[in-house]
Every structure is written in C-alpha cells, then in structure tokens.
Amino acid sequence: MAWWSLDLGDAWLAADALECLQQQWQAFGAHDSVRLWQRHESEGQLHCRLKVYFPPEAERFALFMKAAPCVEPSMTGLSELVLAEPCQDKSRS
C-alpha cells in the first residue's frame, strides 16, 4: 500500500492551501478515523515547505487532491494534521 504526499509550498504562505485542503476534506466526507500528517521540510533551501502525508487508507482523498505517491515517511518530525469540523452557528443551539 502506498503513501501519498502533497506539497503545499512555502510554510509561511500555506494558510490558504491548508484552508482549501480542509474544505475539500469536509466536502469529501472523510472519516474521523483517517489521520493525515504534516511536516515542515527544508530540503536544503532557505524556507521550509509544508508537506502533507496521506496514509494508504486515505488513498481516495489523496488521489482527489492530486497528491503524489511516495514512500512511507519517517515519523520523525511528523505531526498530525488536525482538520477541524466546520464552525457551527451557536445561536441556533
């Protein structure tokens, strides 16, 4: 089973790309049990790039997001990418 990676670009400028990823995650109806991972990677450049890793169980979403196949990443430096639930209107509660 393959892993997938998506390069969101310069980590300082990745907020819009992360927001888009979250919107697509919610629209796709991804399961809470599927965990995505992120890491800032410099690859010898001045600025870090934010990369998101999709495990094999997230393959359909990875393909939807046009992520590239990759080898399983080392867990060193990886953190879980928390994709929050959409804000709910509390005035209706």
Question: What does this 3D model show about the protein?
Answer:
The protein has one domain (3-82). 22% of the residues lie in helices and 28% in strands. By secondary structure, the chain is of the alpha+beta class. It has two helices and five strands. The longest helix is centred in the first third of the chain and has 14 residues, at 15-28.
Number of domains: 1
Strand fraction equals 25-35%
Determine Rg (CA atoms, Å). Answer: 14 Å
Cα shape: globular
Itemize the secondary structure elements and their pairings.
Elements: E1 3-10, H1 15-28, E2 36-41, E3 49-54, H2 59-64, E4 68-70, E5 79-81
Antiparallel strand pairs: 1-3, 1-4, 2-3, 2-5
List the main descriptive attributes of the protein structure presented here.
5-stranded antiparallel beta sheet; single chain; alpha+beta; disordered C terminus; 93 residues; 28% strand
